[in-house]
Structures are given as structure tokens and as C-alpha cells.
């Protein structure tokens, strides 16, 4: 449960700090024997700030609730 909480904290921080993330894929445009042309396509996945905040709070709650109570 602690690991899932830490993952939610990281995703929430990325959502708040960067507003999402982008990644690049390579698409083959032309393939004529030894001649190949590729096109780089960037994809963006936006994360709304409210979801980032919710993930951050939920992750913190998961991490702190998994601790053993001190006696």
C-alpha cells in the first residue's frame, strides 16, 4: 500500500508541476529498400491540476495510514 501511495504522490506532483507529460513516437513514412524516412510524432497527455491535487492527497493518506501506530 505504501508503494501505491508513493506512485500517486509522484503522479500528483507531475500533474501539478508540469500539467502532464509528453512522449515521442517514430512513424515510418517511406521505406524504399535502403532508403527509409521516419517522422517523429509528439503526443501530449495533459493532467488537470485538480486530479494532480487529488492524487497527491490520496497518496499521502495511503502512505501515512500504512504506518503502524506508535505506542
Mean pLDDT comes to 88
Main pleated-sheet profile: 2 strands, antiparallel
The span between the termini is 22 Å
Strand order of the largest sheet: 1-2
Name the structural class. Answer: alpha+beta
Overall outline: elongated
> Helical proportion?
40-55%
Q: Number of domains in the coordinates?
A: 1
Question: Low-confidence parts lasting 5 or more residues at pLDDT below 50?
Answer: none
Order of helices and strands: HEEH
Alpha-carbon Rg, integer? 20 Å
Structure notes:
This protein has helices at about 1-20, 50-65, and strands spanning about 20-30, 35-45. The protein is α+β, with helices and mostly antiparallel strands and about 70 residues long. It has one domain (about 1-65). It has a two-stranded antiparallel ribbon. Strand 1 and strand 2 (about 35-45) form a beta hairpin. It is elongated and about 65 Å long. The mean pLDDT is about 90.
Short description:
This protein has 71 residues and is α+β, with helices and mostly antiparallel strands.
